[in-house]
Every structure is written in structure tokens, then in C-alpha cells.
Write a structure and sequence with these properties.
7-stranded mixed beta sheet; Cytidine Deaminase, domain 2; alpha+beta; about 25% strand; 3 helices; binds tetrahydrodeoxyuridine
Length: about 160
């Protein structure tokens, strides 16, 4: 028997003004994207902005549905659009921000498990790291890879016998 440990590291900034320019710009895109959310049930508006290797920024927002499971998260909306329309590009980074009752949340909003799974798949498909920027008003976390969000994740290689 062996005991194994997995740890992750990330940068924590006090606010988005402390970020390097490119990261700060992507956070602004995520905040702007959040205003496109359709969230009449939770009133929690999430925005995601993906920076591609050609400089294009893809925005996504959560889209809810009266049949709750039919809704889609902001990250999923953005990733699906990206793969369908810019599948030959690499995603360099994704920023995520949320508005609760119209105001940006104080704390960063971490992506849900399904969105983590999708981010990891995209990282594997493209073969390059996707930086993750989780933005709140009083803290911003920056992770250098999406994989760090979900150790021991299920991937395509697990489908082989
Ligand atoms: N939501 C996202 O868009 N992204 C996440 O990673 C977490 C949750 C949305 C889904 C739902 O519309 C609302 O936030 C409340 O859960």
C-alpha cells in the first residue's frame, strides 16, 4: 500500500486591477459576458471568456430553462461554441466571473464539475494548457492548467481496456 498525495498551486490576487494586462482584459470580457446570461430562476449570472491563440475572445453565459437540467453553464456555452466554430484554434485561457443580484460576486466562482470535465477534455484535445482565471471582486485565482481543477479525472484514455 502506498499513500499518494495530489496538490495544486495557484496565484491569488487581491483584485482584478493587480492582474497582468492580458488576464485583466479577459476578466473584463467575462464580466461583460455575464450580462448576456438568461438566468430567470437562479438570478445568478455567470460569464465566461475564452482567449484563443489568434487573439479571438469567445464569450459565453449561462442559459437556464424551466426544465432545470436543460440549462447550460457559462463555461459549457463558451466551450461548445468555441469547439464548433473555432475548433482548429487553441484556447489559451478562460476567465469566469459572476453577477449575483446584478453585482459581481466578492469571491471567485469556481466552475462546476461538468465544466471542469469539459475544460480538461479541451486541454487534451488541443494538447496545450488552458489557464483558468476565477474572478471575484476581492480575490482572483489564476491556475496555469485546467487539469489542476480536477485531479484523477476521467479521460478518453480510460475508455481503453
Ligand atoms: N453556473 C455556471 O454557469 N457555471 C458554473 O460553473 C456554476 C453554475 C450557472 C448554472 C446556473 O444557471 C446558475 O449558475 C446557478 O447554478
Amino acid at each position: 500500500m502506498k499513500k499518494r498525495e495530489v496538490s495544486i498551486s495557484y496565484l491569488e490576487y487581491n483584485n482584478r486591477d493587480e492582474l497582468p494586462v492580458a488576464e485583466k482584459q479577459l476578466v473584463e470580457e467575462a464580466v461583460a459576458a455575464a450580462s448576456g446570461a438568461y438566468a430567470p430562476y437562479s438570478h445568478f449570472m455567470v460569464g465566461a471568456a475564452i482567449l484563443l491563440d489568434d487573439g479571438t475572445v469567445i464569450r459565453g453565459a449561462n442559459v437556464e430553462n424551466a426544465a432545470f437540467p436543460s440549462g447550460s453553464c457559462a463555461e459549457k456555452t463558451a466551450l461548445s461554441y468555441m469547439v464548433a466554430n473555432h475548433g482548429d484554434r487553441k484556447a489559451l485561457a478562460i476567465a469566469i466571473a459572476a453577477l449575483a443580484d446584478g453585482k459581481m460576486t466578492e469571491e471567485p466562482v469556481p466552475p462546476c464539475g461538468n465544466c471542469r470535465q469539459m475544460l480538461i477534455e479541451e486541454e487534451q484535445r488541443s494538447g496545450s494548457h488552458i489557464q483558468v482565471i476565477l474572478a471575484g471582486k476581492s480575490a482572483v485565482y489564476v491556475l496555469e492548467t485546467s487539469q489542476a481543477l480536477m485531479p484523477l479525472s476521467f479521460t478518453g484514455s480510460n475508455l481503453r481496456k
